[in-house]
Amino acid sequence: MQQQQQKKYNSSSNTPINTPPIEETLRGFEWFTYMRANSPVVYDQQLNIWHVFRYDDVYQVITDHHTFSSADVPNFSQNNFLKDTIVAQDPPDHRRLRQLTNQAFTRRAIISMTESIRQLTQELLDQLIPLGTMDIVSDLAFPLTCNLIAAMLEIPIQDRRLVYRWVKGVDSNTPLLSREDVIKSHNRMGQELYDYIAHILEKRRREPCEGFISALSTAMSNNAGLSDDELLKFCVLLLVAGQETVQNLITNAIYCFTKYPQSRDHLLQQPEHMPEAIEEILRYLPPFWVTVRRTTVDAVVGGKSIPANMIINAWNASANHDGQYFADPEHFDIRRDAKRHLSFGHGIHFCLGAPLARMEANIILPMLCKQLKNFRRIPDRSPDITAGPLHQILSLPIMFEA
C-alpha cells in the first residue's frame, strides 16, 4: 500500500477496508494481496457491509444461492435497472427465467452472429487505421460493442446513435448543472430506452423472424413464456450490461497487450493461442470486480460468523489473483490455464452472455492485433482508469503504423 494513500480502518481490527484508487500500475491488486493475507473476511462498520477476498470464500458466496441471495440487495437488485431481472432473482423465478432466455442463447444463434461481428469491426478499422492513432475506448470499443448489441436487438442503423446515448447515460443536448439535473436526465433517457425497446418487441410479437428478439418472444417453458415486462427488462439488461462487459474485455485486452507487448507478438506468431489469452485477460483484469449478495441466514465464511440480512462484497478480482489457485498471479501469462477464474461468476448465476462475449473477443482481438501494426501507448498520455465495483478503463490512447 502506498504511504500517502489515506486509509479507513475497522476500529476493532485496524484493517484497511477501503478500495484504493486504481492507477496504471494496478495498485488495487496490492490491496487484494494484503487483504487475502491479513483480513480475508472483514466487516466494514462505516458501510455496514462485509468484504470477502480469497478464492474459496468468494466461490462459496457466489455459488450458494440458498445462503447468499441475489434478491432484495440494496444498491444492486433493488436498483430500477436490475430489479426483477434474471441477475437479481433467486430460484424458482431465476430458474424459470434462465430456462427461457437460454433458448435464445443457443450455440447456433451465437455462431450466426460471426459475420456481423467481423463486418462491423472491419468497418470501424477501415475508418481508424489511416489516422495512425486512436483512443481504444471512445473510438473503437465503445461504438463497436454498441453496434453489435444494437444489431442483436434488431435496432435499425439510423437509430444506433440513440443506443450510444442510452448506454453512456448522458444527454449531450442538455447541460447538467446539478445532481438533480443528472438524475432527471438519467430518468428521462431510461424511459426513452424502455419505450423504444418495447416498440421493437411489440413489432416482433406481430412479425416474428429468425432473430434474437423473436427467439426470446417465442421461448416457452412449461407452456409459459416471458411476460412483456420480463422480456423488456431482459433486453434492456442485455443492451446495457452486455455492451459494458464486452467493451471492458476488449479494452482490458489492449491494455494488457500494450503493457506486455511480448504477449501480442506471441499471438501474431501463434494465433491459435488466442482463446487461452482471453481467459488470462479475464482472470488478470476482469470486466467486473465484485459480486454483491445478501445473507438469508446466519452464515460462516472463512471462519467468520456473518449475521443474516447482511450485504457481502465478494471480490472476484481478488479471487482471480489468489496464489493458491494461480501461480505467480500478478504475472500476465497468456499460456497459463486460467479457466478457473471467476470473472463470469459460477453456479446458477454464471453469466448467460459469456459464450457470446468470448466469441466476440476471439473474432475482434485477432483483427486488432493483425491490422493495428505495432500498436503501443502514446507517450505522456496515460490511461484514464476509474476504481470501484466496475473497474473501468475510460480512456486508452494508442498509436500504430498506418
TrEMBL record:
Top-level taxon of origin: Bacteria
Transmembrane spans: none
Stretches the record annotates as Disordered: 1-21
Keywords on record: Heme, Iron, Metal-binding, Monooxygenase, Oxidoreductase
GO MF, one example: iron ion binding
Entry-linked PANTHER family: CYTOCHROME P450 YJIB-RELATED, P450, PUTATIVE (EUROFUNG)-RELATED
Similarity field: Belongs to the cytochrome P450 family.
Name assigned to this protein: Putative cytochrome P450 YjiB
